Amino acid sequence: MYSEIDSDFEDKPYVLKAKPDESPIDIEQIVSYCSSVDWEPLSIRNDVYELSWRNQMKKVIDHLNLS
After folding, report:
1. What is the 3-state secondary structure (H, E, C) of the chain?
2. Strand partners, 17
3. What are 2's strand-pairing partners?
4. Is 15 within the bounds of a domain?
5. Separation of alpha carbons 19 and 3, rounded Å
6. pLDDT by residue (tens digit) across 3-52?
7. pTM for this model (two decimals)
8. Which pLDDT does position 38 carry in this prediction?
9. Structural domain that includes position 53
10. To the nearest whole number, what is the mean pLDDT of the chain?
């Protein structure tokens, strides 16, 4: 769950977005969401693999031609 804009997680079925303000969080909505989502661990792992520090730094190294 998050409230900001993050292109890495927008429209992912396993992420719930909250309003980006100080309004109370609806706990019942969270429980309902968690109960209804078809959690696919492998799919989530594959999505976040690209976000690992190793992969992020590889992009930097490749860009700087340090490899």
Report:
1. CECCCCCCCCCCCCCCECCCCCCCCCHHHHHHHHHHCCCCHHHHHHHHHCCCHHHHHHHHHHHHCCC
2. 2
3. 17
4. no
5. 6
6. 999 888 888 888 999 999 999 999 999 999 999 988 889 988 988 888 89
7. 0.62
8. 85
9. 38-66
10. 90
